[in-house]
Amino acid sequence: MARNTINISGNLFGLILAVLESAPLHGYGIAREIESRSADALSFGEGTLYPALRALEQDRFIESGWDTSGPGAARKVYSLTPSGTQELARVRQAWLDYSRSVDKVMGAQARPTTA
């Protein structure tokens, strides 16, 4: 059976780090920025996003603080740490290597099989 979706959730950590490279954001803002940058092709719900944020914070790739500057309730804002910047560089290189390998297979023209 053919599948018409690609499981991108394994790359969520890298996507979060990439978004936070530009500026600190709260969780909702991170989710919307991923959607915006992917032209709505990628979307993650709270049940996926917030555990990933906790894991990245535990690994010290991101840190959080409370933004109380605006009206309404304080919001938890996440930012990239120096080790997060290093991890993002590693993840980007791994993605580039992976995508090149997939391109070699997906872009390859069919070859006749010899029996």
SSE arrangement:
Blueprint: H1 12-22, E1 25-26, H2 27-37, H3 46-58, E2 62-67, E3 75-80, H4 82-106
Helix pairs in contact: 1-2, 1-4
Describe the structure.
The protein is an alpha+beta fold. It has a single domain, classed as Arc Repressor Mutant, subunit A. The chain contains 4 helices and 3 strands. It has helices at 12-22, 27-37, 46-58, 82-106, and strands at 25-26, 62-67, 75-80. Strands 1-3-2 form a 3-stranded antiparallel sheet. Helix 1 (12-22) packs across helix 2. The model is unreliable at 1-6 (pLDDT under 50).
The neighbouring-strand order within the major sheet is: 1-3-2
Total number of beta strands: 3
Percent of residues in beta strands: 5-15%
| Low-pLDDT ranges | 1-6
Main structural class:
alpha+beta
CATH class: Mainly Alpha
- Might you state the CATH topology name? Arc Repressor Mutant, subunit A
What is the average per-residue confidence, as pLDDT, rounded to a whole number?
87
**At the fourth CATH level, what is the homologous superfamily?**
Winged helix-like DNA-binding domain superfamily/Winged helix DNA-binding domain
- In angstroms, what is the radius of gyration? 18 Å
How many alpha or pi helices? 4
CATH architecture label name: Orthogonal Bundle
Features:
single chain; 115 residues; alpha+beta; Arc Repressor Mutant, subunit A; three-stranded antiparallel sheet; 4 helices; disordered N terminus
What's the short version?
The protein has 115 residues and is of the alpha+beta class.
